[in-house]
Amino acid sequence: MITIKSVRELKGMQASGHLLATMFEALRDVIKPGISTWDIEEFCQEFVSSRGGRLSEQGFEGYKYGTCISVNDEIAHNIPRKNVFLKEGDLVKVDATCNLNGYESDSCTTYGVGQISEEDQHLMDVTKKAMYMGIDQAVVGNRIGDIGAVIQHYVEDEEGYGDVRELIGHGIQPSIHEDPEVPHWGKAGHGLRLREGMTITVEPMVEAGGDWRILQKTVDDPNDDWVFYATPDGSKSAQFEHTFAITKDGPKILTLQKPYDGLEKYIPHFDEMED
User: Fold this and answer.
1) Which annotated residues bind a divalent metal cation 2 (predicted)?
2) Does the annotation flag 106 for ligand binding?
3) Domain extent at residue 69
4) Residue 1 domain-assigned?
5) How many CB atoms are located within 10 Å of the residue 158 CB?
6) Maximal CA-CA distance, the chain
């Protein structure tokens, strides 16, 4: 069911999203060659819990951890691991959801570890730009297909990368996954019409090798049958994700990270509004 959020709910989601954004900002100084992906999980757990929040992916559909951490060709949904250490030039994707006082937010950031190649930086830049291009289509009266169409055209037709089809954005609140589904591909003018007060995520996953398909794998743990996804050709991938609200003044990003330079139009001000 799609819920239209009240100002009170948007205030709560803005606070949750701000906490999650500050966690991702802090990770910029944490992620470096030599640390394990488990170190990232521990940092995120401590950061959010010490500020009154909870990483709400933990326990959702049987998931055991607070973060999903995927490295290089791993597209999404891999688990934090004590035996996986980041190396110079890696790309690491950290995906997390935050619950603060009952309000949810969801975000993902790709980090370059140490010095990365120009090719990998371009992959990250394209993926982030694709996310913002999709978010810009999320205006009152547009349709879900408008979001996916602009992402797919840019990623595949203009840049020659692979735009993952099977993993998609979604509505959020009161749980971390709600209707509607938000594909990152599609036809402009098709799909559900967007309304003021909807809260959704846009989270394109882009494959450097140009393939849009994904390879399903099971985590390397005999006590866990959790499934994650990787590129079929071994090429690297990137992902960026924000949670945002659709308003009469355009999309307002609840998980926006500093610096805000050039992103001022996305800054939410629900905390200044009357309920």
Assistant:
1) 106, 170, 203, 241
2) yes
3) 7-269
4) no
5) 10
6) 52
Question: According to the annotation, is 77 in a ligand binding site?
Answer: yes
- Examine residue 221 and state whether it is found in any structural domain, yes or no: yes
Residue 245: how many CA atoms within 13 Å on its side-chain side?
A: 27
Q: Which alpha helices (DSSP H) does 50-154 contain, by range? A: 118-136, 144-152
241 is in an annotated binding site: yes
Side chain identity, residue 262: G
pLDDT at 118 over 90: yes
Over residues 189-245, the pLDDT tens digits come to 999 999 999 999 999 999 999 999 999 999 888 888 899 999 999 999 999 999 999
What length is written for the chain?
275
Peptide bond into 259 cis (omega under 30): yes
Give domain status of residue 275, yes or no: no
Does residue 200 fall inside a structural domain?
A: yes
The pair of three-digit structure tokens given for residue 132, joined into one six-digit string: 């913002």
177 annotated ligand-binding residue: yes
Q: Report how far residue 230's alpha carbon sits from residue 234's, in angstroms, rounded to the nearest whole number.
A: 8
